[in-house]
Amino acid sequence: MAGGLVVEQLLNGLQFGLMLFLLSAGLTLVLGVMDVVNLAHGSLYMLGAYVAATVAGATGSFWAGVGAAVVATAAVGLVVEATVLRRVYPRDHLTQVLATFALILVFNEGARIVWGPQALLLSVPPELSRPVAVLPNLTYSAYRLVVLGVGAGLAVLLFLVIHRTRLGMWVRAGASNRAMARAMGVPIQQVFAVVFALSAALSAVAGALLGPILAVQVGMGEDILILAFVVIVIGGIGSVKGSLVGALLVGTVDTAGRAFLPPLFAQLMSPEAASNLGPALASVLIYLLMAVVLFVRPQGLFPVRA
Amino acid sequence: MRARNLSVEAGRRAALPWPAGVGRALLWTAGGALLLAFPYAAEALGWHFYLSVATKAAVLALAASGLNLVLGYGGLVSFGHATYYGLGAYTVAVLAREGVQQAWAVWPAAVLLCAFAALCVGAVSLRTRGLYFIMITLAFAQMVYYGVISFKQYGGQDGLRAPRTDLGLPLTDAGLYYLTLLLLGACLVLLWRVVHSRFGRALQAARDNELRAAAVGFPVYPVQLCAFVLSGAITGLAGVLMAHHTQYVSPNMLGWPQSGHLMFMVILGGVGRFWGGVLGAVALVLLEEVFHSATVHWQLFVGLVLLAVALFASRGLSGLLEGRLR
Predict the structure, then answer these.
(1) What is the ipTM of this complex?
(2) Does A37 reach chain B within 8 Å, measured CB to CB?
(3) Distances from the Cα of A217 to the Cαs of A48, A109, A201, in angstroms?
(4) What CATH number was assigned to the domain covering residues B22-325?
(5) Where in chain B are the domains?
(6) How far apart are CA B105 and CA B108, in angstroms?
(7) With an 8 Å Cβ cutoff, are B314 and A91 in contact?
(8) Could you tell me where the beta strands, DSSP code E, fall in B36-191?
(9) Quick check: helix, strand or coil at residue B309?
(10) Of A84, A104, A291, the CB nearest to B136
(11) What residues pair up with A141 in beta bridges, in sequence order?
(12) What are the structural domain ranges in chain A?
């Protein structure tokens, strides 16, 4: 197999992994700090993509779309936190699951009412539409490279916030032991509102940037939400470092599996069997990965809970 | 979190489902008569559609009641019960494709297959707890889902026709409705006896405090595994019935949204309440049908109602009803 293809798929995997990280970092903090299972996280991602597509279509500027998506989604996140989530903190996980599932239905139908049932078109900004040479004989989509760069930059920024600022210290304290953090005077309620808005903003970035690559449509949030949950379970709930490692693992394993397993199987068995088994196993790969990780380390790769 | 006085709780619950007075006896008789007379009324009024809705509600009530055993009484949040539901349905369709349509062979095969699948999944998953248990049951469900759609000869993504099995007598829609009611009733009696047996107490004790339950001497892992297998088998039976109802199986029956749907029914009805599964399934099916017939944007209204229940009725519909009846 050509080396160029391997590098290309590796880059695709990294890029998808970083976007998964933007989604799962917020999810893991919300779950780790406030112990809230937020199924509606995928809806915020969807909202980000829709707002980006609308504003980019109206202004003609892709980056204005991304900016608007971040601001609008963070605002919606704050409202959702204040009206719904704040009421379900003290309840058990199942009540939170029901409430946030209800939010998914409301968001999905809301999007259908506002934007219609058709998928929206969000196109790559024209200056990034042409491929660039990354290696002497390998060209790669400039847009995907920028997505990769933005994802990596935001990851670094998030790490600085979590590990170098007072807010980050509070967040880590809350994730490690909420009751103790509160007893030591950490304003958990305010910290959580900020964390929730931040996680909404990050998922909006992921939605807006993935919009041109995947499709902007109702239901886009649910499938990726499951992947984000797989990521945070692999990484260890509440750990941003864990969700970065988990996201990169899931992103590369998933992308590589889809690219390389079917041709590999085609060499090992009859074409018919390979065309059946290859894609199935590629889809199952990340769940196998999760099962193996949980078998070896039941608390995930980077356990946080004290 | 769930520290409760078990004996008091169990005593109060024990009084609930069976008639405890003339009023309640009348209520039960009237309810039973209504259920039995429903197909005739539907026939007379030309409501064939509503018979189908009632059958669907009863099938899902069975599936949700099966899930409620592990989710409510065991405190084990399985996010993969669509596996058993879908496998039960697929057994009917696949065996029919292979030429086996005798009910006496198909039904037990389906239920046994589901029990076996639950045994395998449970044996591994029950070593984890909490959110990790949720995710590992989901992982197994996804593996089964992708495994099944890789069988192109059994329909792949498109699903498969599932002709009704041969019960030895013609199975009309009304007949299927009665059969579903009968099996639902039988399974509810079984579940009632299970949750009020020593086994059921052990299951609930492990839910409330696993360490104490183990210290008292309950074999926590085997008890939970048995409950998981029974739950999978009952949900699988519901899948068999659903295949008979729709006469078609689709991979969606195995997907995680289906698992979620079953879970939401239990939460809506009341987690760990005996009638939680039944109430939740009937309420959700009715909600969806009512709003579906009224507006294109029915999901919005279903969502708002669910949100209201989650925010204002913490113990689900059973909690509301018990408060009213007591």
Answers:
(1) 0.81
(2) yes
(3) 11, 11, 19
(4) 1.10.3470
(5) 22-325
(6) 6
(7) yes
(8) 160-161
(9) helix
(10) A291
(11) A131
(12) 3-218
